[in-house]
Amino acid sequence: MIRFEEMRAILAGRNAFYSERLRSGVDFAELPFTTKQELVDDQAEHPPFGTNLTYPVEKYIRIHQTSGTAGKPILWLDTKESWDWWLACWEQVFKGAGVREADRVYVAFSFGPFIGFWAAFEAAQRLGAMVIPGGGQSTEQRLRALFDREATVLVCTPTYALRLADAARQHGFDLSRGPIRITVHAGEPGASIPETRRRIQESFGAKTFDHAGMTEMGAYGFECEAQSGLHINEDEFIAEIIDPETLAPAREGDKGELVLTNLGRIGMPLIRYRTGDLGVMSRQPCPCGRLWARLVGGVVGRVDDMITIRGINVFPSAIENIVRRHPQILEFAIEVHRQREMRELRLKVEVEGSSDGIIARLGREIHDDLRVRATIEVVETGSLPRFELKARRLRVLD
Ligand SMILES: [Zn+2]
Fold first, then answer.
1. CA-based end-to-end distance of the chain
2. Which one is the CATH code of 306-397: 3.10.150.10, 3.90.110.10, 3.30.300.30, 3.40.50.150?
3. Do 307 and 345 contact (CB within 8 A), yes or no?
4. For 198-210, what is each residue's pLDDT tens digit?
5. Do residues 334 and 349 make contact, with C-beta atoms less than 8 angstroms apart?
6. Are 192 and 299 in contact (CB under 8 A)?
7. Which end of the chain, N or C, is more open, meaning fewer C-beta atoms within 10 Å of its C-beta?
8. Which part of the chain has CATH 3.40.50.12780?
């Protein structure tokens, strides 16, 4: 808590957003939670950047924004110091995955206002690896670049890795014999979903690592080589798990919402921020020797992504884990419909080749594993949206 108290002293009287909040509790555990809605409201009331600024605007060197999945994006500013802190957190992600100086890191990402891959790019450079920018290229050009430049590490969303794998099959590249030895993923929980991970690993003949971060928070989670969950970088973040209903601390081993405080982003910090990420935290020792807490199985879902069908809670990640067992399914979408006060789950799938038996098999597996019934619909190839950044495969139609 020493670093937190140091930060608190800097913020007091300087940061308008947090000055008042920090007065409301002596102990850390008494301080109020910060919610995403409060950040959205603050920027709406005080455009364009809101009041969570510790320094005059001139001190800030970078601006990024959230994906705005649920409404208007939030703008986030970094000073030179806080950007360096971001990169140090990402370096931890690479080190956990075993990326070394001799590696060549291909970042399959068009460099827009989303923060994640900018930080990955610069952090790889800081580590001493060679970085290969993959923006402004078609999927086929990216595949060629991976081979021609002999890239050993691929950084992209899990969805995009699978898209590269599909394109490789179409264009006759054998990725599993290609140079990539490590893939590092961000933006979606996919790399912690066992079947998605398996497909990426097999397609690339590589070891696949998950990472978790948020534009407004930082790169807080990474996998070590033991791959026994997502480590939380507790040197730089204070992690808590709460019951999202009662807001009380969750018991060890219970699933809850991750609440984080970052300690090195003083220019625009977050204290006790409700991330919306759900997970189970473990403090059991990890074979890698790190003492940091782990989210077992990664981020299992988002608080606002939970689907309740006839009293049973289902997460899109659990459905994805079933869909990915079937390599002939190219893309999918989950729809929740309300029918006479009852909610109905519909799964749309694009199938390569014959779809014989797939409807019955998927329906049975979803029922057996998740205890809900789903209507499966095979749709025309290419009719579902494709994603380069965060995939949005869930639609709730009320
Ligand atoms: Zn570990």
1. 45
2. 3.30.300.30
3. yes
4. 999 999 999 999 9
5. no
6. yes
7. C
8. 1-302
CA 223 / ligand 1 centre spacing (Å): 7
pLDDT tens by residue, 269-287: 999 999 999 999 999 999 9
pLDDT(76) > 70 = yes
Ligand 1 centroid from CA 275, angstroms: 22
What is the CATH number that goes with domain 1-302? 3.40.50.12780
Q: How far is the CA of 392 from the centre of ligand 1 (A)?
A: 30
Residues of the chain with CATH 3.30.300.30: 306-397
- The answer to whether the bond into 269 is cis (omega within 30° of 0) is no
Separation of 226 CA from ligand 1 center, angstroms?
5
Q: How does the average pLDDT of the chain come out, rounded?
A: 92
CA 157 – ligand 1 centroid, Å = 22
Rounded Cα distance, 171 and 176, in Å: 14
Ligand 1 centroid to Cα of residue 127, in Å, is 20
Per-residue pLDDT reduced to its tens digit, 320-349: 889 989 988 999 999 999 877 788 899 999
Task: Output the CA 165–ligand 1 centroid distance in Å.
Answer: 28
292 C-alpha to center of ligand 1: Å?
8
